[in-house]
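In response to reviewer comment 3 from the previous cycle, which asked for concrete evidence that the modeling workflow produces usable outputs, we include below a single protein chain processed end to end. The sequence was submitted unchanged, and the resulting structure tokens are shown without manual editing.
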Amino acid sequence: MPVDRSALGSFLRSRRDGLTPAQAGITAFPGPRRVPGLRKEELAVLAGLSPDHYSRLEQGRQQTVTDEVVEALSRALQLDQVERAHLRDLSAPARRRGTTWEAPQRADPGLLRMMTTLDHVPALIVGRRSEILACNALVRAVLGAEVDAGAVLMRWLFLDPRARQRIDNWSDYAAAAVGAMRYEVGRHPADRRLLDLVEELRATDPDVARWWDDHGVTDRTSVDKRIAHPVVGTLTFGIEALVSPHDPEQRLVVYTVEPGSLTAQALSVLASWGLDAPVTSGGI
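The workflow returned the following structure tokens.
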């Protein structure tokens, strides 16, 4: 069965539209321009491809995409590391294009042990489709009791109005989350539950629809988050994510703080209120 290459074509077109000839370091081809970005023919020349070959790629008609072509397009489009990885995923043969999962997820024991040692900062383990597999008490104290093991983080972020109230820089954080979701879809295009989640969020929240149509991708390994806590005030975190060496679909997400900062002091206050022990899910 032929591989659906429509996502590949859409991604290439979006990156081409966002790169001008001047940014690409070439002189614009003569003739009227309908958009400021590169023309197909200009990108083809930059990547060392024939115009017909590139057109087939962007139209989703090119079934076989070699590693050499992926690398040439990545250089020509000036893709960053995450975008290059996404392009490789979209170009992969059918036998490498993702997996569907039916078995329940359980928190990786190694990540769980690491999380339990981090009781002085908020920490949680996130699995496939942004499902929370485990979290400590400080996560719930900082974000709200709705963020708990078994919850879907993306649903809370976009469907619960309290998320926008709690996260001061909600737009920055939420846009990155949509980019991470698109990155996951590129890796697992056959995951029906993941695709259903995307469609649910796109249909419900116009911000998701807008960011999704931009085709941006992120890996969410390091971002900043500002929390407007109703009791202790503004909290500032650096969010770091560590991938399990045994299960690349799981990440330990840690809310890091500067030692001695106002946020660190506020966390001590929250922790002194006798919060509950860490919570893990028994399988989602």
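The first strand starts at residue 123 and ends at 126. We consider this sufficient to address the reviewer's concern, and the full set will be provided in the supplementary archive.
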